[in-house]
């Protein structure tokens, strides 16, 4: 019996044979990433029921030297939860760890297992008259373990922060198969190294998150949404400053959408009507969450819009009159990726630059790319309030999209990432590194930063069995120099 066969047999004994999948038909959904960009192979897909079983699997993997790939809802965009093509790795799906363990309304926390779907946490919080503010397009299928592992952002980052800021404590299975119980719902704990932050954003390369204590917030009394048309991203930055001055912490959403983004949505989803009679170079969707009343929020919005129009910052604006109109405004934003998919293959970038640099970054980079590929169409949208842009490049009209990607993806990526680096930004803002961007991450990080990451990986996972090949390049030997 080979080591792999012995590992599979031991897992079947630990989990029950029905929770160890080896048949190709059964394993297929776990081997392909959401964008179908990556397809791997696995010796088995394992479905543990609780943290103790996860720890048992990890100990068996270490004993038999089997690399493991943790997986949540499999909605990631960078191949971080997809095994390699060797067929030697095992996928650990955490979808059976789907219990909400506790809701503490006095402490404003909810304790959840890693496989709980994000929308279910939102609903449970709402039932307790609380708000769990993490919100993103995949919330009906993504899981909180994946959100934590990639430090997901979403539309509420401006007010509430990334997933990291929403987490107070973790339960983690270490690479040695031990269980670290850090499920402390504390806002203050100054007793040494912050181990929690090591695992958030690590994409399962340092350990497997099995449960978390997450912050809840008071449910807002009213949410009011508006759209504004502007002449440039520079005007959008001025509008953001004005909105923050007027609304302060009530400003929970501030989304930037380019003219072509809106035209693309109108082309493929004509039922989502753009509310302005003429196009605008940029459209901003902003939302206020008010703890007082809808009337208070609308009055604040009206004062903000009046000043923005008087100063010439905003060209046109409309405030949602009801919930249906608010949902329609958000529909314009949320359908941009779907419209892109309908239009054809495109080159995607999930980047961040300092907020003050966004206008310059867009203008400079648009010009460089247009010179490189005349006629290219830019689909720029994102969370302006935290500097996160989805800076996507669509093929020129009439050009075969696949041929465009084959020819230009590598040089355009280099152009964009060089610009990001020049503006002291990040090549990944909320999607993670996975296997898609690991080489670029190693290239753009300083030698010191790379060595520090490799040192942490070597210290916690010396056998390099935890999701190898993701986030950081490391061959299992002590880091001595930058590998880029």
TrEMBL record:
Biological processes per GO annotation: respiratory electron transport chain
Gene3D superfamilies given in the database record: 3.30.465.10, 3.30.70.2190, 3.30.70.2740, Uridine Diphospho-n-acetylenolpyruvylglucosamine Reductase, domain 2, Vanillyl-alcohol Oxidase, Chain A, domain 4
Pfam families (UniProt xref): FAD-oxidase_C (PF02913), FAD_binding_4 (PF01565)
Keyword flag Flavoprotein: yes
PROSITE patterns named among the record's database cross-references: FAD_PCMH
Keyword rRNA-binding found: no
Domain FAD-binding PCMH-type: 38-219
Molecular function GO terms recorded: catalytic activity; FAD binding
Cofactor(s) demanded: FAD
Keywords in alphabetical order: FAD, Flavoprotein
Family membership noted in the UniProt record: Belongs to the FAD-binding oxidoreductase/transferase type 4 family.
PANTHER family membership: BLL6224 PROTEIN, D-2-HYDROXYGLUTARATE DEHYDROGENASE, MITOCHONDRIAL
Protein name: FAD linked oxidase domain-containing protein
Organism: Caballeronia temeraria
